[in-house]
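Subgroup meeting minutes
Present: P.N., E.W., G.H.
Scribe: E.W.

1. P.N. recapped why we're keeping a running log of single-chain structure predictions: easier to compare across weeks, and new members can see raw inputs and outputs side by side.
2. G.H. added today's entry (415 aa).
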Amino acid sequence: MSNFHQEELIYWLAFDSLKGIGLGPKRIKNLFDHFSSLQRAWLADESELKEIETIPAGVIEAFVRERQNFSLEKPLEKVYRYGIKAITQIDPLYPHQLNQLVQPPLVIYAKGIWDLNWFEKSIGIVGTREASDYALTQTRQISSQLASMDFTIISGMALGIDSAAHYGAFDVQNSRCVAVVANGVEQIVPASSRPIYKALMENGLVLSEYPPEILPEKGYFPARNRIVAALSQAVLVSEAGARSGALITAERAIEMKKPVFGLVGRADNKQSEGIHRWIRKGLARLITSTEDILEEMEMLSSMPSQINMLEDASLFLAEQKKQSTMQRKSSEKKDVEKNNSSNQTTTQSNTKSIDIASLNESEKNIYSTLLEADSISMDRLVELTSMPIHKINSTLMTLELKKIIKRQGPSICRA
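Output recorded in log:
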């Protein structure tokens, strides 16, 4: 590590550890771009910081207050104490694959073997936690066969399909296996994954975008899934129900024009319903064996028309989202018009009146974003609000309790 990167690291970790003041990764990157150094940004006067038009004055004022009593050494001390690699966006060791993301992690925390070459030939394997015996057996076998061909196996260390993927890689000596987790790399979640964690510490890698001691929260899992998709050349969904989080990983892969494979399951198995639907729509390619995956990937690398198919899938998915949003807005409009024509008084009593003044800054930030977007994914909400994801999650929970917003699958919308 160069002297510049070493001197900068303490400030990148410090900024990454600041919570609840509205300084998300996007705004922190704006600080770096403005000052060419987060060290300079940390030490800058309030007036200098307020020159950055993309960061609200209130956020700058909160940061200036926060840094006064902040221990700069504490985040770096934890990294050293646990033997963790902390890799920032400006570090040459930062995986270029993560730059495909709308909002790449500010810092990657890694424990185990760190080798960028691992991500040059990799496949993500994801699926339901409540997997069938058939899916578990097939996943472990496919993972083992791919690992024996020098593919890096990437999954999330969860129960079910994730665990089968990891164990399949472990069946092969000197395999390359990575777990991307939705918590700090010092936390083992779930506790039953301890054997997987131990094996990864000996001959694999655990990585996260969260500081070492952070516990998982609900919104961290979809955020984690985007990293699995970015680091993988392709994604295999072994088994996934209609609302499975594994489909979020697949969706992110499609958006990045990467192939998605779906393991064929039983027609009457609810846990295969989601991926079967994707296969029917042409978003995922049906596979029954490792050979199918290899054939598809070979075709992709040799035939330009196959690349066009991936672009078509990405456009199709985007168009589906657009149509879904338009249909929902149209339905909402008809409901309003119906209410207006039947009883104006009833309409007024049923229409939710939001007292903006009663909301705190975080709640206003999210609510105003939803007023513009109507329905939004967690990734997009993080990007637009520039709030830390843990703050977004706690704020969403509060807004749900106030019946101001609601969740519809992976999307968030106004109630």
